[in-house]
Amino acid sequence: MLTDRIKGGAATVAVGALAAHLVATVLQNTPDSYNQDMRTFTGGWPIPGWRFFAPNPGVQNVHLLVRETTDDGPTPWRDVTPVVPHGWTQVLYNPRSRGPKALFDAMQQLSIMSANQADFSWVTQSLPYDLVLAASRAAVADDARALQFLLMNVFPSAPADQRMKPILTSEWIPLGTARRPAGATA
């Protein structure tokens, strides 16, 4: 009988703590004008603050397009953006999302550099450029002599004639030669 009371009391405390945490989370994530730091009311317990879409919601997708030169000349552009499978199990465990996420973040950084009119020589010496170049190299044919990549913003909800906007086009990059590290002299 005493163990039933202890179990009931523990369950009540657990449900109450979860309910309090959920209410504090909702209050913590209200618009900024009503936002309070809930840690003062929760004894220092961290309450998550989520701002997934505000103040700049995602309205575009970034695509990586590649073309190469072969003995027959330049090939048409092809989209080599990694496809990330979506399913219910990815909510719990998704180890394959890190590679595409790293590439996406690098493409986003190049987009920001381009939007801020960064010098092209500075962009080509950046780590995001190196990552996108490595992904592009992995996507070209074995007999390719050179490659060129293009980052393209795609706005799915825009009118058909305004859906695509080029962000950055690389120069033709010869294959089979290693890039010189930044600051290296000949």
Please describe what this structure looks like:
With 186 residues, the protein is an alpha+beta fold. Helix content is 34%, strand content 17%. The chain has helices at residues 2-28, 98-115, 120-124, 127-139; strands at residues 61-70, 73-74, 78-79, 146-154, 164-169, 173-174. Strands 1, 2, 3, 4, 5 and 6 form a 6-stranded antiparallel beta sheet that branches. 9% of the residues are buried.
Radius of gyration: 25 Å
Oligomer: single chain
Helix content, binned percent: 25-40%
> How would a crystallographer describe the biggest sheet?
6 strands, antiparallel
From N to C, what is the helix and strand string? HEEEHHHEEE
- Count of individual beta strands: 6
Strand content: 15-25%
Mean pLDDT: 80
Tell me the distance between the termini.
85 Å
Shape: elongated
Structural class, judged by helices and strands?
A: alpha+beta
